[in-house]
Design a protein that fits this description.
Layout: E1 2-13, E2 18-19, E3 26-27, E4 32-34, E5 37-41, E6 44-49, E7 52-55, E8 73-77, H1 78-88, E9 101-104, E10 117-121, E11 127-135, H2 140-146, H3 155-165, E12 172-176, E13 182-184, E14 189-193
Parallel strand pairs: 8-9
Antiparallel strand pairs: 1-4, 1-9, 1-14, 2-3, 5-6, 5-13, 6-7, 8-12, 10-11, 10-14, 11-12
Helix pairs in contact: 2-3
Length: 194
């Protein structure tokens, strides 16, 4: 195992970040909510804040679920946000792409760098193993948001934004390895498992 960083942020999407109807749909990060604890389950993420438990919109149990199978959990890296800010601007704050787990790291990661799984370990011994890692392909709406576009991008602008945000820059999807669930908190250590 190789340590690659620590959890910087745990969050949920209370509802879809894509608002409106095509072709006028746009990206709105307002439903994002940072939480002190994130319970990972086979159905998806559950944010825990005090006594409240809030389902992420990609959790299969959410009333308006956006779960499509491989997207029940998501993660990204602070280093990728630094690259996005360099390219598009300061409005791309850490976590604005909506991943459940943001990992603090100085280096960029491609899918091939992430091994067979990620292991997240708390100082108290809690562990969560994420498997079936795949790239979270960027969408048109987030690309427009990244480009600060009020309307549709030209085909060339859209293609350039999608290409830049692909290959894990926008983030990754994962599944909780077999088990009833696990809890993740900011500060937990993250390891690549070969």
């Amino acid at each position: 195992m190789i340590e690659i960083g620590r959890v910087a942020l745990a969050q949920i999407q209370r509802s879809s970040l894509k608002v409106g109807q095509k072709p006028f749909r746009y990206y709105d990060p307002a439903p994002l909510l940072a939480v002190p604890r994130l319970r990972l389950t086979p159905s998806g993420a559950v944010g825990i804040s005090g006594d409240d438990e809030l389902l992420d919109v990609h959790n299969r149990q959410h009333a308006a679920t956006r779960n499509q199978g491989p997207n029940s959990l998501s993660f990204g890296f602070t280093s990728h946000y630094a690259a996005m800010r360099d390219r598009f601007g300061q409005h791309l704050a850490d976590g604005v792409a909506g991943e459940n787990i943001l990992i603090a790291s100085e280096r960029a990661f491609a899918l091939a760098d992430l091994g067979a799984a990620l292991l997240i370990r708390g100082d108290d011994g809690r562990e969560a193993r994420l498997t079936d890692l795949i790239v979270a392909a960027p969408c048109v709406e987030f690309s427009q948001f990244a480009c600060l576009a009020d309307g549709p991008l030209t085909p060339e602008q859209l293609r350039a934004a999608l290409q830049f945000l692909n290959d894990g820059v926008r983030g990754f999807y994962a599944r909780l390895a077999d088990g009833p669930g696990a809890e993740v908190r900011p500060g937990d250590r993250v390891f690549v498992v070969a």
